[in-house]
Predict the 3D structure of the following.
Amino acid sequence: MSDAVSIEEAAERSDLPVALTRAFAHLDPRALGIACGLTCGSWLMIATAALVARGGPNTGYHLWMLAQFLIGFEVSWRGALIGFLYGCGLGFAGGYLFAATRNALVLRFLRRAQRRAERESLGDLLDRLS
């Protein structure tokens, strides 16, 4: 049998640290970075490959501006691979930074909430003693 407790059960038992930990679960920056990187890279590669496969006049009209930002990118099969690599790198960086920032903000919020609760309980204790 597992010791897993739902958020509602923890809140009902007044086990606030467990409830808050479950509600604000830690994001793994590396895992989110890999997922975002592969997604961004795949979409950029698919978009480029679809334009190359379609062919015709103005083949790269919709993606030509990316060559200004992604060095070596072009609307070709080689460019699709280069776009995949750039998408993976930029997507990884974005996902990693998002997860790390979110984790830091949640940790800060939880610490402030804990300090506030401790201050209020100390104030209640001092009120009862006086």
User: Anything to note?
Assistant: The chain has a mean pLDDT of 83. The chain has one domain: 29-129. Residues 29-129 form one domain. The chain has five helices and no strands.
